[in-house]
Amino acid sequence: MNIASMTGYGEADAHGLRCELRSVNHRSLDLRFRLPEGWAVFESAISAELRKVAQRGALTLSIKAPGPLRGSLDYAALKARKALWIEACDELGRSEEAPMTWLLSGVFDGSPALPKTEQVLALVADAMQNWNAERLREGGRLEQHLRSVVAEMRDLLAAVEEREGIANHEYSERLRQRMNDILQAQAVDEVRLLQEVSLMAERRDIAEERVRIGAHLDALAQRLDGGGAVGRSLGFLSQELLREVNTIGSKAQDLGLAERVIALKSCIEQLREQLLNLE
Fold first, then answer.
1. In a domain, 130, yes or no
2. Which helix (H) or strand (E) holds 147?
3. Are 149 and 230 part of one and the same domain?
4. What distance in Å separates the CA atoms of residue 97 and residue 110, rounded to the nearest whole number?
5. pLDDT tens digits for 236-271?
6. Phi and psi at residue 222, to the nearest 5°
7. Is 183 within the bounds of a domain?
8. 146 lies in the same domain as 261
9. Which residues face 21 on adjacent strands?
10. Is the separation of the CB atoms in 125 and 138 below 8 Å?
11. CA dist 105 → 74, 110, 211 (Å)
12. Are residues 161 and 247 in the same domain?
């Protein structure tokens, strides 16, 4: 199943009618209609068709009926209106012809005949097909970018693990040197040194965070593989990724680790920005 963007545009023409369907980002599904006067009867059927395809986004569907209106005359009402004018003239003792605009007022039905529901839905379906094709094309581009960001985050996570080992070794050596400086000529208490190193290593340990980040990246990739409307679930995963990376940042007391944390945050920001466009 492919991934779709929430942004798209499609149009179609048939039977002298023109249908346009536009969509932009929205946290839920918001349907809006701009139909010719008297066409509100079609909104329910059109809405049902749109909901089969769209799950999120603000969708605006408009139908235009160009050209002159074709109306009809109510001849019985026309005759009655003419008789009323003659009666009024006789009463007033006047002889005037009734103005045509007055005679037709109220007896001319200028509303165009409504098309069949099947015709309207067929027109909408054509516009939806073009609209959805554009959404899928944009969704494909978004997916490629998301996968590249995930790959970059995996590389950074491996770099974090590598730097973690180096940082811990450097810290233990600095601690050893500090104790030597304090004790000067006295021998370093190896047991005490190991205790201090172990305590600080526990405080600085980011193994659990790294594992959870890796699991979140795996879940993100699996959802991309599954396709469909994944925007919400991926948005949640991006929040969890940021939480774990922030924890690493709070524990990191090493410039190399801090630099990698900043790079990871930049990747997550890219993810969240692109996910705003994903259905």
1. yes
2. helix 117-183
3. yes
4. 24
5. 999 999 999 999 988 877 888 899 999 999 999 999
6. -65, -40
7. no
8. yes
9. 10, 61
10. no
11. 11, 11, 79
12. yes
**What amino acid occupies position 232?**
R
Tell if the pTM clears 0.85, that is, is over it: no
Q: How many domains does the chain have?
A: 3
**Domain membership of residue 93 as a residue range:** 72-109
Position 129 pLDDT exceeds 60: yes
| pLDDT value of residue 69 | 47
Q: Is residue 164 located within the same domain as residue 248?
A: yes
Residue 98 and residue 145 share a domain: no
Please enumerate in sequence order all residues whose Cβ is within 8 A of that of 274, keeping only pairs 6 or more positions apart, or say none: 142, 145, 146, 149
User: Do the Cβ atoms of 137 and 8 come closer than 8 Å?
Assistant: no
Digit-coded pLDDT (tens) for 165-207: 787 777 667 766 766 666 665 565 666 656 665 666 566 678 8
**Backbone torsions φ then ψ of 64, nearest 5 degrees:** -115, 140
- Same domain, yes or no, for 246 and 162? yes
Together in a domain, 14 and 125: yes
For residue range 100-126, what is the model confidence (pLDDT) as tens digits? 877 777 665 555 568 889 999 999 999
